Amino acid sequence: MILTDIHTHTTFSADGRSDIKDMIETAIRKGLTYYGISEHFNYDYDRMNLTAEGEEVPPIDEKAYFTCIRKLQKKYANKIRLLAGAEFGFDHDTRTQERYRATAELYKPDFIVNSVHTCLGMDCYFPHYCTGRTKEYAYNAYLYRVLESLYASYPYDIVAHIGYCSRNATYPDPKLRYDEFSDVYDLILKKIIRDNKILEVNTSAKTAGSAFLPDTDVLTRYFQLGGRSVSFASDAHDTSRIANKYDLVVAALKKIGFTHQTIPFIGKHILLPL
After folding, report:
1. Could you tell me the pTM of the whole model?
2. What DSSP character marks residue 58?
3. Distance between CA atoms of 16 and 261, rounded to whole angstroms?
4. What is the spatial distance between Cα 25 and Cα 30, in angstroms, rounded to a whole number?
5. What integer pLDDT is reported at residue 48 of this predicted model?
C-alpha cells in the first residue's frame, strides 16, 4: 500500500501546532511516500477582518514558508516526496482572488488546495454558524458557496473538505447527505469532473456524523458521474493525525470502485494504486 497525505498544516499556519520538521519526520516514520504541506493562506479572513472565536488570525509569512519548505524538499529528497502546497480560502471578492493569483505566480506551489471556510460573512466551521438558521438553509448556503468557489480565477488542483460546515454543527442530525442536497451536489461534482480537478477525501470530520468528508454517498455519486480523481487528506495540524484513517478511506474508495488516488504536482496528476 502506498501511504500518502497531501493536506496538512504546521506552525507556519496560524492554527498549526507542530513544527514543520517534526511533521515531515513523523510522515517519514509512518512510511508515507508522498507528503504534502498546504499551509493556510487566509486572504478571505483578511478581507472580512474575521477572527477565530474572538482570536486574531495572523497572516502567514509566505516568503518564510516557501523558503523553508523548498530547502526541506532538498534535505529530505532521499526519504520522502515532500510537496510544497498552499490552501487558498475562497472569497468571491475580485481583489482577494487577485492576491491568490499573485501568490501562485510568485511562489509557484507544487499544488493548491481550494477551500471554502467562510460563508454568510463568517467561518462556517464554528458552531455559531448554525445559530438561528435551519440546517437546510445553512447547508444550502455553504454548498452554493462551494459551487461558486469552483469558478475562482486563481489556479487550483484540489477541491477540499466538502462538508466543512458540518464539522462542528449543532443540529441534532448534523450529517450533510447527498440526497438532501442532490441538485447542488450534482452541479458541484460535474464541475469538478469537467475541469479535471481532484476531489479530496478529508478525515478531519469531527462531529459531522461521518468518518470522513464527503461521505460515501457523495463519493458514490461522483463515481457514477465519471469522477475518478480523489486524494487523501488528514488535514492534520499536528503530528498525531498524519495519515489518520487512511486505511478506512482506502477501503471505502475500493468498495465504491476507485482504483487509484491522484497526487497533484506542478500541474500534472500522478496516479497511485489504492
Report:
1. 0.97
2. P
3. 26
4. 9
5. 84
